[in-house]
């Protein structure tokens, strides 16, 4: 952002050497990401902007704050160009977790805020984040991650356009349903066109797209992608002109493999960006954030300068903000990290907007006070939902005593990947029974519309075979996902989540053994970052006790209900086959669905 006229004049006076700076970082080695050099020098700051970088006298006055950077590298603050600030933490608590680690700019996905709060509530939240000690930029979703009746109305072009008109919205977000984009979905193409008319970007998602499918996606208007999982896929994306984001996340730590394109194939790094892609809280606590990716890059043989450029000037250039941020030069925003070494990339001091906001890993700045209830962030539940009825959750089937039915079962093969397995189940009282024999590893699952209109019922194996009852609004529909072996325990877990106004609950032996409220859009806690880390660790431990075999429960839950990953999924439309779009078992109406409540 260009400084105001008075501040701009002060900036010019200091740049000319005619008045002292407000802040001087003195005696360090400046990482010049523009020239690719490490140069001894000072950084002089006025207001929130850099006025001078180099060696001269006169920038320090009686009221100048001086930071001694002797023996340290002075680098631009890190930019996270593709982030989902709703992995249990919220946009405010995420600042607490990552600003002391050097991330001073974050490009945030608006999905669940938009779905729950609408344009007005989302806009109010974004306004309240403008003065945060971390710079928030946003991307606007064009569709959800799971089709539902009314989706097109929710994401109507006029609503998206209102967001694209904002100066803190840099363009459109990834379209996970990329096959619709490649086939020419009119609404999605219209949203991308609106972004282009405003000179803004369109982020991409091409997971699973072959080299032959990429040209159509690029032609549709995407500018970037973060879904390469090996060096060949990375090179394909670069060759098609995409800004290519290399992911190191709690779900997919792909960075060492992707960097082989640089260390082995000598790929040009100017259009490469590193991203954490919204990692879980416990992953950040154990591995860091952008600083963690820099460590991995160094361990993989990438030079410190090239690594820094991939989290500073490269993302700033993609964002179209390199005149404002991404480097240390006159007129740029004064986002600065002081690095004791170029092995850990953990800053001793973090400056954001010209102010010291963290030191020694401790946050010094105040977090923004977000008015969640005023934005409409608290999930609501219809009064007609029969949470406490165990018979509500098992799938329905015709047949009397002794009858059987073959049902498609969602079998987990990896953290977020499933396959289809058709299994024969006994039927009792019009309900499928999963309770032994060949069905011993199968649990019930139901996705319940919080508005009280519909329920989708299914069967799952390989997820957490021993869980008696589990319920969560943490999934990419934000509706109530209920799963377990025992319908009575499922009913208790669902009732508890309703009582918390959203969250996660695990039940065993008639008791709630884990609970964590997520009252922000059903996805996020209002608590501190550390509280989210602790809850994530406890949830991981409780689910592993009950048979969860994978490494990231946060993402397993998030994508349990999606419509873009193989193979079958439980969605608002019912149990679907992702590849074909076939509805294998449709959702059903809930009696009294017109009776909306709170």
In short:
The chain contains 19 helices and 30 strands.
Mean pLDDT: 96
Oligomer: single chain
Compute the number of strand runs: 30
Instruction: Using the 3D structure, state the CATH architecture of the largest domain.
Output: Alpha-Beta Barrel
The helix tally amounts to 19
Fourth-level CATH superfamily of the largest domain: Metal-dependent hydrolases
Number of individual domains? 2
The coarse overall form would be elongated
Characterization of the model:
- The chain is α/β, with parallel strands linked by helices.
- Helix content is about 25%, strand content about 25%.
- It is built from 19 helices and 30 strands.
- Strands 18, 19, 20, 21, 22, 23, 24, 25, 26 and 30 form a ten-stranded mixed beta sheet that branches. Strands 1, 2, 3, 4, 5, 14, 15, 16 and 17 form a nine-stranded mixed beta sheet that branches. A five-stranded parallel beta sheet has the order 6-7-8-9-10.
- The protein is elongated, with a radius of gyration of 25 Å.
- The chain starts with a helix and ends in a 9-residue tail after the last strand.
- The mean pLDDT is about 95.
């Amino acid at each position: 952002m260009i400084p105001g006229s008075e501040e701009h004049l002060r900036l010019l006076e200091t740049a000319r050497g005619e008045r002292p700076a407000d802040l001087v970082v003195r005696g360090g080695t400046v990482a010049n990401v523009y020239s690719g050099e490490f140069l001894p020098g000072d950084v002089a700051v006025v207001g929130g902007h850099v006025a001078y970088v180099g060696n001269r006298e006169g920038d320090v006055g009686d009221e100048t704050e001086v930071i001694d950077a002797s023996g340290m590298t002075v680098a631009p603050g890190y930019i996270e160009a593709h982030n989902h600030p709703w992995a249990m933490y919220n946009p405010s608590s995420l600042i607490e977790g990552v600003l002391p680690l050097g991330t001073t700019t974050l490009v945030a996905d608006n999905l669940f805020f938009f779905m729950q709060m609408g344009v007005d509530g989302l806009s109010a939240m974004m306004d309240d984040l403008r003065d945060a000690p971390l710079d928030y930029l946003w991307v606007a979703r064009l569709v959800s991650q799971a089709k539902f009746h009314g989706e097109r109305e929710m994401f109507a072009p006029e609503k998206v356009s209102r967001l694209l008109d904002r100066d803190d919205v840099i363009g459109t977000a990834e379209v996970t349903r990329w096959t619709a984009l490649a086939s020419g979905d009119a609404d999605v193409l219209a949203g991308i066109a609106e972004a282009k008319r405003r000179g803004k970007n369109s982020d991409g998602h091409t997971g699973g797209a072959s080299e032959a499918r990429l040209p159509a996606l690029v032609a549709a208007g995407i500018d970037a992608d973060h879904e390469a999982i090996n060096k060949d896929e990375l090179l394909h994306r670069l060759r098609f002109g995409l800004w290519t984001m290399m992911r190191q996340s709690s779900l997919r730590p792909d960075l060492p493999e992707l960097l082989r394109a640089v260390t082995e194939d000598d790929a040009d790094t100017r259009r490469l960006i590193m991203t954490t892609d919204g990692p879980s809280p416990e992953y950040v606590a154990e591995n860091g954030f952008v600083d963690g990716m820099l460590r991995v890059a160094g361990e993989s043989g990438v030079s410190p300068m090239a690594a820094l450029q991939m989290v500073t000037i490269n993302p700033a250039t993609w964002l179209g903000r390199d005149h404002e941020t991404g480097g240390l030069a006159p007129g740029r925003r004064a986002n600065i990290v002081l690095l004791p070494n170029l092995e850990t990339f953990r800053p001793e001091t973090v400056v954001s907007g010209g102010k010291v906001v963290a030191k020694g890993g401790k946050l010094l700045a105040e977090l923004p006070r977000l008015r969640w209830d005023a934005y409409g962030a608290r999930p609501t539940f219809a009064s007609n939902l029969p949470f406490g009825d165990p018979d509500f959750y098992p799938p329905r089937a015709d047949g009397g005593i002794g009858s059987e039915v073959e049902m498609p079962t969602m079998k987990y093969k990896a953290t977020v990947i499933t396959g289809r397995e058709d299994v024969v189940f006994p039927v009792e009282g019009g309900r499928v029974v999963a309770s032994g024999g060949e069905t011993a590893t199968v649990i019930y699952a139901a996705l319940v519309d919080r508005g009280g209109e519909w329920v989708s019922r299914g069967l799952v194996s390989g997820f957490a075979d021993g869980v008696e009852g589990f319920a969560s609004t943490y999934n990419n529909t934000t509706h109530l996902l209920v799963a377990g072996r025992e319908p009575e325990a499922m009913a208790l877990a669902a009732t508890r989540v309703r009582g918390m106004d959203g969250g996660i609950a695990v039940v065993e032996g008639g008791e709630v053994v884990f609970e964590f409220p997520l009252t922000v859009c059903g996805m996020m806690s209002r608590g501190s970052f550390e509280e989210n880390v602790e809850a994530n660790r406890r949830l991981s431990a409780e689910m592993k006790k009950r048979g969860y075999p994978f490494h990231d429960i946060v993402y397993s839950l998030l994508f349990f209900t999606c419509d873009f990953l193989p193979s079958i999924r439980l969605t608002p439309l019912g149990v679907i086959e992702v590849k074909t779009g076939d509805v294998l078992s449709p959702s059903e109406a809930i009696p009294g669905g017109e009776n909306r409540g709170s």
